[in-house]
Recover the amino acids of this structure.
């Protein structure tokens, strides 16, 4: 049973969850959890997935971040978006800002360290999927 970081009501927490039976794009049907690769082209049919996991093949592969942004902004996907595969504590901040609300770290990674680094700042100069407002937005 993997341990995950999950954003629950704007609060990141470590949770125990059972393995999802992820379906690859070729085998996937509406109403099932879908796992896609970082080079997949977002498809509107994915909105019928119970959850979408993006499988990162390498720590240095940022295409999954771009895919998450497209899913959240272009398709307006609101379900669980899971980062899995070769993710590391050092990138959880970027995963969260790109729209992932669940992060599955590989065995042996330190979840407590990841939890510390998932949201290290209180304000941002640049907008993101997770924080569309910046420190420059007027609070009038």
């Amino acid at each position: 049973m993997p341990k995950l970081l999950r954003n629950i009501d704007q609060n990141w927490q470590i949770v125990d969850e059972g393995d999802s039976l992820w379906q690859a794009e070729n085998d996937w049907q509406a109403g099932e959890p879908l796992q896609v690769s970082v080079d997949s082209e977002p498809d509107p049919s994915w909105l019928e997935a119970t959850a979408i996991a993006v499988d990162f093949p390498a720590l240095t592969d940022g295409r999954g971040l771009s895919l998450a942004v497209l899913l959240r902004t272009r398709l307006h996907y609101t379900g669980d978006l899971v980062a899995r595969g070769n993710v590391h504590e050092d990138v959880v901040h970027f995963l969260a800002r790109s729209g992932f609300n669940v992060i599955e770290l590989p065995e042996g990674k330190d979840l407590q360290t990841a939890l510390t680094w998932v949201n290290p700042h209180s304000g941002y100069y640049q907008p993101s999927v997770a924080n569309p407002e910046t420190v420059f937005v007027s609070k009038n």
Remarks:
- The chain has a mean pLDDT of 88.
- The longest helix spans residues 63-73.
- The chain has three helices and seven strands.
